[in-house]
């Protein structure tokens, strides 16, 4: 039997009787470094691309980006694949650094759009409310826009407390950021702003 897990503490969850009868040998694989990722990409490029169609500088950048992001080989392979698609659409004879950068942006945008499309209705309304509030807006300001949106589409609004929880949940995704503002005797308030382009929200919600 070969067991594979990304969880280094996986065995702690097993029954002691299972562990005692395993008699296992444990091998820990560390994250790929730039040199290893470069070799992996070179092998994939030989299989998927015509000879000399990927510039060495583009290959090196792709490996460096993936190495920086926890040495993820799948990320590197996805990046070179998307860069190849972009180069092909632009009728470029080679994949160059510019295509890697465009691919990185496209992958990130696609990931954001997929996440936004999967949001329940009220999370979507909160994102639109943040966009409409503009700049850095307090929870109260966002809630006012949110209530207006609910009224427009004939939906019962959630409580401000629940919307505050939703804001905290969305903040963890990195699509918005929050900053605590101290207001002296008036207490503290948190202000939120978008970390993604408004166009991404509009594109994701265009069918709603």
Account of the protein in words:
This protein has 208 residues and is mainly α. It is built from 9 helices and 3 strands; from the N terminus they run ααααααβααββα. Strands 1-3-2 form a 3-stranded antiparallel beta sheet. Helix 2 packs across helix 3 and helix 2 crosses helix 4. The protein is extended. The chain starts with 15 loop residues before the first helix and ends with a helix. The model has no long low-confidence stretch (mean pLDDT 90).
Specify the structural class: mainly alpha
Termini separation comes to 48 Å
| Order of strands, widest sheet | 1-3-2
The tally of helices reads 9
Order of helices and strands: HHHHHHEHHEEH
Offer a few descriptive terms.
208 residues; mainly alpha; three-stranded antiparallel β-sheet; extended
Secondary-structure topology with pairs:
Layout: H1 16-22, H2 34-48, H3 56-68, H4 73-89, H5 97-117, H6 121-133, E1 137-138, H7 139-153, H8 160-173, E2 176-182, E3 188-194, H9 198-204
Antiparallel strand pairs: 1-3, 2-3
Helix pairs in contact: 2-3, 2-4, 3-4, 3-5, 4-5, 5-9, 6-7
